[in-house]
Amino acid sequence: MTRTLLSFGHGYCARALTRLLSPDDWKVIGTTRREDKTAQTTVGSAEIVSFPGTDLGPVLAQATHLLISAGPDADGDPMLNALSHHITRLAPHLEWVGYLSTTGVYGDHAGGWVDETTPLTPSTRRGQMRVDAEAAWRAIPDLPLHIFRLAGIYGPGRGPFAKVRAGTARRIVKPGQVFSRIHVEDIAQVLLASIRAPRPGAVYNVCDDDPAPPEDVIGYAAELLHLPVPPATQFDDADMTPMARSFYAESKRVRNDLIKQELGITLHYPNYRDGLLALLQADN
Questions:
Q1: Please, which domain of life does this record's source organism belong to (predicted)?
Q2: Which CATH architecture has domain 3-156+181-209+253-269?
Q3: Where are the domains of the chain?
Q4: Rounded-to-integer distance, Cα 218 and Cα 174, Å
Q5: 0.85 exceeded by the pTM?
Q6: CB distance 67 to 17 below 8 Å
Q7: What's the distance, CA 3 to chain centroid?
């Protein structure tokens, strides 16, 4: 039986999941708001439609799975704004719904550990919008919802190598600052494992085993390239955009025990060193 995945906001993570789904068993329909992609009828094995601009009613009517990658903005969640809370009426055959959120919902913990039971205390506007969006999706009755809180995403095309090669990479040092990360292929395998073993209401942190200071990642990338390690710049002295500076407002280590214990995940890239080495080998 062919299953249908509607991928709302068919971006980087959704494309990685699609690569794991057999075209013989799955039909994937993805939405995009980018006008330059509307002429593309397919991306990989996914059919791409423009939204707004396409009536999603017929798609939702046949959808068995729904992945929401599009993030909220000041007006709220774009899919719920467009379709209100009538998802279950429009999509009566849903077996699994995945919402891609962020570990930013936990806020700042001064480098301490957080897990899925940690109270949500975001310290940025972006984090609060995610908290609000999670709550809005949870408020829909009878929705087989699964929330995935993603750490900093990297992977093919999203590594530090280009900036290191160009000499534009910076090692911003803020004492005690650590970030958790996750390779896009590990996000995809977590989503697939959840699809195969759904537990509506579940919340999963999706991150690797090794929260680390950002300057260490840049330094290691330079070492792999046999290039000089960029000099360190203290956070207080760094010339940064408000957006870039806001990422340093929070420091925490994120636990990933649940994806291992419940979904049986063995990470392909349990730390940034394994992940960056694999990216460089693929580039070569």
A1: Bacteria
A2: 3-Layer(aba) Sandwich (3.40)
A3: 3-156+181-209+253-269
A4: 14
A5: yes
A6: yes
A7: 23
